[in-house]
Every structure is written in C-alpha cells, then in structure tokens.
Design brief:
Elements lengths: L1 E5 L5 E5 L2 E6 L2 E7 L3 E7 L3 E2 L1 H9 L3 E5 L5 E5 L7 H10 L3 H29 L8 H13 L3 H22 L17 H24 L17 H24 L8 E4 L3 E4 L1 H16 L2 E3 L2 E3 L1 H16 L13
Parallel strand pairs: 1-5, 2-6, 5-7
Antiparallel strand pairs: 2-3, 3-4, 7-8, 9-10, 11-12
Helix pairs in contact: 3-4, 3-5, 3-7, 4-5, 6-7, 6-9, 7-8
Length: 329
C-alpha cells in the first residue's frame, strides 16, 4: 500500500480507469493503480475531482488537505467509526486524574528514554561534541515516576526537551546554525524541517486515531484546547526523536539538504522550497517502511503506530495495559 503525496501546485488528481492520475496542464506527473493507494495528502493549490474523491471515500482512502507549508486544513475521512462506546470510555477514563497521570508518565518516560538512545547513536556514529547533562536527563525519568501532578510533569518535559535540543545544537554546530527548538515561524532551516516532519507524523497518527474511532481532541498530557488534537500529540511524543528528528539530522549530516534549500518569508520564517519537499517525503517514507526487530517481531514505524493506537484502545476498553514504544539501547 502507498501514500500518494501531491505537492505540485496547479496539479489535478483524477480517477481514470483503475488508476489515480496526477496531471498538470495535460501532462501526466504520476499514475498509480488505485488498489495500491492507502491515503492521499494534498499540499496547497492542488485539485481533486469529484470522481476521485468519491472513489476514495467508498474505498476507505482518507484525503488530507494541507497548506503548501504542511499545516493541516482538514481531512476527508471515509466511514468514521460507529463505535461510540470507545469514545465514551475515552472520555470517562481521561476524566480520572490518576489514569491521566499514569498515561502521561508512560509517554514521557518513553520519550526521554528514546531521546537518550538517539543522542548516543548520533555521537557514536559520527565524531561530534560530547553529550552534556545525560545523567540529569536520566534523573528526570525518576522525577517523572515520583511526580503527582500533570502540571509538574509538563515542567519536567520542558527541562528534558531543553537538554535534548541543546545536545542536538552541539551535534549539528559544524553543519548548520541551530540555536534550539522554536516553532512558528521557524527561525532557522533545521526548525523549519522539523516542523514539516512533525506535520507529516501528526497527520499520519491522526488518520489512524480516526480509523480506530477515538476522539483526537481528548488527550491526557497535552492541555485540552479548542482545535488542538491533544491525543495525537500525546501519542506522537515518543516518536518525534526516532522518526522526525532522526530524518532531519540525517538529511543535514549527509548534506542531502542544505540551507540553500530554504527560503525566508517575512511572516512564515524559513520555508522548505517546494522542489525539495519530494526529497523529504521520500526519506520520510523510507523511514516509516524500514523494518527492524522489536520485542521478537519484525516491524516498521508505521506498524508501531498502528499497534500503539490499538493498545491504547484496548486499554480504554479494559482489555490490557498500555506501554509505549521504547528504543533499545
């Protein structure tokens, strides 16, 4: 199964015979058998015909619309799950302070554990500056276990993120200017690339959450806000480092992407040039589909996400415990 990414501005997605065809000014850009398409992601000024959209809806193919910079506009979801009982359970359990606290601890312990493993891998694979405050980063895991409030956990997460990105800054210091994590607008190319990759990852998780019948807006760690898909961000936290951050570091370290591949906008900050986005999308797909051994099984990150959402759903329905993906040292 494939994900169809369409980034060429002015292109049109059509349904022709048994294929999805992407055209611009009469020229075929790509043509793919319809049975191979699992999801469609549309960036910016791209059209999709009614026939193509209807076929997608009838065949459980979600269609996601994003701005040209990768910000989510909305998703056409085929046959949203009728399982109202799981959403009731989700609402009930996440009103329980102890359950929210324990779920939040599980996610943050997994996130920091994965962060430590990734930093050590970066230093091991390439000669770079020594890691700083790794012992303190490890000690934060114990503080998480001892914490008795969500607010305190968020404070610990902030400290852990600062240490993690400070080390990333040192690791990348010879390659690119990166002063630490910032959001929108991106103040440097590395943050811009992170934003783009995080958008890809969050949209992927959102589709799986929808398919399972969960409410993406009801989370346990991230504060509930109007329009925020808190559950998606909760589930994404431990995967930021192993997936998105790892891709970004690789692309800059191997000089596949350079500062010249970005343009600076007076409002939106640094933006990845359109012609380079396909390179990033290819590396994202490669990362998501790469197989590895995990707890005696051969999996990839796409299957990890699906299994995580399944485990979370089973936990809500009192069918088991919830434990997040953790990298092996």
């Amino acid at each position: 199964m494939s994900i169809l990414y369409v980034t060429t501005q002015g292109a049109v997605i059509k349904k022709e015979e048994h294929r999805f065809t992407v055209k611009k000014e009469g020229k075929v850009l790509i043509s793919i058998p319809d049975f191979r398409v699992e999801r469609i992601l549309i960036y910016g000024n791209v059209q999709i015909t009614t026939q193509a959209l209807k076929f997608a809806m009838r065949n459980d193919i979600s269609v996601t619309f994003l701005t040209s910079r990768g910000h989510l506009i909305g998703t056409a979801i085929p046959n949203f799950s009728k399982n109202i009982f799981i959403r009731i359970k989700q609402f009930e359990k996440l009103q329980n302070v102890n359950i929210r606290l324990n779920l939040s601890k599980e996610v943050l312990i997994a996130k920091i554990t994965n962060s430590i493993v990734m930093l050590k891998r970066y230093v091991k694979n390439v000669n770079s500056a020594p890691l700083n405050n790794i012992t303190r980063l490890k000690s934060l895991i114990n503080r998480i276990r001892e914490s008795n409030s969500i607010k305190r956990l968020r404070g610990i997460e902030g400290s852990a993120s600062y240490i993690y990105f400070s080390n990333l800054r040192n690791i990348l210091s010879d390659l690119i200017k990166f002063e630490g994590r910032n959001f929108h607008p991106a103040k440097d190319p590395f943050n811009s690339l992170l934003n783009f990759l995080y958008s890809l990852l969050s949209n992927e998780i959102l589709g799986i959450v929808f398919n399972k019948g969960l409410d993406p807006y009801i989370g346990f760690l991230h504060e509930l806000e109007y329009g925020r898909t808190s559950l998606v961000f909760d589930l994404m936290e431990p995967l930021r480092g192993p997936i998105a951050d790892a891709i970004a570091v690789k692309l800059f370290r191997k000089r596949i992407i350079k500062e010249s591949d970005f343009e600076k906008h007076k409002i939106y900050g640094f933006i990845l040039k359109q012609e380079v986005r396909r390179v990033v999308l290819n590396h994202y797909e490669e990362k998501m589909e790469s197989k590895f051994k995990y707890e005696g099984m051969t999996l990839n990150f796409r299957k990890i996400i699906i299994e995580t959402v399944n485990d979370f759903s089973n936990y809500l329905m009192d069918r088991g415990n919830f434990r997040y993906f953790r990298l092996k040292k």
